[in-house]
Fold this sequence. Notes:
Blueprint: H1 2-32, H2 39-55, H3 60-83, H4 91-113, E1 128-131, E2 134-137, H5 138-159, H6 162-172, H7 174-179, H8 184-210, H9 220-230, H10 235-255, H11 257-260, H12 268-279
Antiparallel strand pairs: 1-2
Helix pairs in contact: 1-5, 1-8, 1-9, 1-10, 2-3, 2-4, 2-8, 3-8, 5-6, 5-8, 6-8, 9-10, 9-12
Amino acid sequence: MQFFIEVLVGGLLAGVMYSMVALGFVLIYKASGVFNFAQGSLVLFAALTYVSLVERGFSVVLALLATLATMLALALLIERVVLRPLVNRSPMTLFMATLGLSFIIEGLAQTLWGAQVHGLELGISDVPLDVFGVFVSKLDLAAAGIAAGLVGVLSVLFNRTRLGVALRAVADDQVASLAVGIRLERVWAAVWAAAGVVGLVAGLLWGARVGVQFSLSLIVLKALPVLIIGGFSSVAGTIVAGLLVGSSEKLAEVYLGPALGGGIESWFPYVLALLFLVVRPTGLFGEAVVERV
């Protein structure tokens, strides 16, 4: 039982990390209906920028502030130059635009900072901590706490402020939002800025865990099952789905892996996602689309 609890807790904490990446997708999709495939590249760019500045002699605080400013500027630039001119285009056009954008961001990162692998230290050792007889990684615990704090801030921002009211209005009906005086470009800019901040936090946490390398952008693939299971428009669904994906993949690897030859952790979440697509296509918390015919 103790071993089962350790595996379960480790999976839950890993699921929080997946949710961090998926949050960036949800924020943008909820406001504009755009599936931003470039979110993984934003995570990579943030981590690579931070660690490169630290290696060049910047203090931790100054490097963090400079990276935050860079991510905000990059997110706003993407919204203004790339996506705003494509308003009212087909979803496939917008998806292809963000797909191309992901490669551009990766190329920009390589041009600015090089392609070498970096180690990233956040001052949190990745060593096991004994919690009531269960060993848990300190880094995973810290990441879970940071993620919970970020989700709390976003919840307050989008549920208790005028911006949040505007965001929910835009998500429900863009035409009606324009009719009551809501400026869509401001809402989109704010959401992209928030996605840039989420990308920074996710990039630092994932970079500290697996190292800062260009394969870090592929973490976007881990977010896809989370989005499908939780629903593309639900922040709460993203958190719940991340916990479900993280715990199920760890438990499946430990208890089903030996019978299936091992290595099922990498593909088991996609089996769950496929089942949800068949049984509940909108996900746990997603809203069904009702169209007048």
